[in-house]
Amino acid sequence: MNTEQMDQLSGTRLAPYIQLATYLIGYSREGGGNMFRHQLDTMSILIDYKYIEPVLLKASLVHDILEDIPDFNHNVLLSIDFESYAVYNLVQEVSRRHGETKPEFLTRIKESGSNNAKILKVADRISNMISLGFVNNLEFVERYINETEKYLLPIAAEVNNNMLTELTDLVSSRRKYLQDFRNLT
Asked: How far apart are CA 21 and CA 39, in angstroms?
């Protein structure tokens, strides 16, 4: 990370968004782990790939809050700082809309999502794929792997080749996990 990037990151106020992410404490994930830690993991993945744009990082910390807390008062998010509206719009972009199926949602992001929405969705999926190593519902794991191959790998190929490599490796390792588990039974 160069000096300019470090300066930009050091000037980004993330604490209010981390505080907001604590609303997700106690919510579990079908893909393993808990929602609060997943938000932090997603942000860490972005930083690892040198994405330090403030709106993107802030959105990563609260990207599941609108979708997973149905009665969440979005005005709380909108009142945090001068970037809140941009953060809110990005979070909305990466959230499933009412009545939208998962394939429709992922296709929407793939075909018409902003670059930041695509980057955030890929980081989100990397975090989710890492968590799959702790999931015992084999049908869920297989469906998730197939979905990742069909929708997320093309998005990753568009936004970041290194993220594509990691996601491809995760798909491969999770397929091996499924195969090994099925061979045991």
From this structure: 7
